[in-house]
Amino acid sequence: MQSLPLLAAFIATATVITITPGLDTAMVLRTAAVEGRRPAVLAGLGIALGCLVWGAAASAGLGVLLQASKTGYTALKIAGAAYLAWLGLKLLAKPRSAFEALDASGREPQAARSAFWRGLLTNLLNPKIGVFYLTFLPQFVPAGPANPAYPFFLAVIHVLLTLVWFAVLIAATLPLAGLLRRPAAMRLLDRVTGAVFLGFGLRLATSRMH
């Protein structure tokens, strides 16, 4: 049976976790400032879908297998760290100085079309998200007969909170887009974001299962 006080405690805790600055926040902020509203929304949707996949996996018991398999965890961790390092190095080596507008056919540039996949892969290749759901969600599951769908319900709530937070970030960033899209500002923002990605990649590569 659902416990409203326990659900309220989960929402409060998940909200604090959501607004704590991290890789996802950095990605959405940088995308909104440099690439615009639509790419930022797509990046946020990709991140949300990645979280939902991990939430479903943890609810189905796949998170237990991941936590038990040191080899599987390490392989996924290395792939995620390498991907973050690649994103970071690319931003550091080739920071942009101009915003990509629509091309001659009126279609979005490749950078905008890849925003969704960038957000999705960043989360799918991070096994710590799966382990986080595996250890975090059960703390807010009411006592009684096991309900496999309830942890996923909590994961959905967390994702909805995340999407609301991304909407706030995008709305707050867009008024500054004109300033942040100046060539010098864009290069600086890309380099700072690249360093952040490298830092998170290093942190992921050196992390251990708990």
Give the helix/strand layout.
Layout: H1 4-19, H2 23-34, H3 37-59, H4 62-68, H5 70-93, H6 110-113, H7 115-124, H8 127-136, H9 149-173, H10 177-180, H11 183-205
Helix pairs in contact: 1-9, 2-3, 2-9, 2-11, 3-7, 3-8, 3-9, 4-8, 5-11
Which terms would index this structure?
210 residues, mainly alpha, 11 helices, 75% helix, globular
Question: What's the short version?
Answer:
Mean pLDDT is 78; it is low at 101-107.
Give a verbal description of the structure.
- This protein is mainly α.
- It is built from 11 helices and no strands.
- The chain has one domain.
Distance between the termini: 29 Å
Largest sheet: none
Cα-atom radius of gyration: 18 Å
Overall tally of structural domains: 1
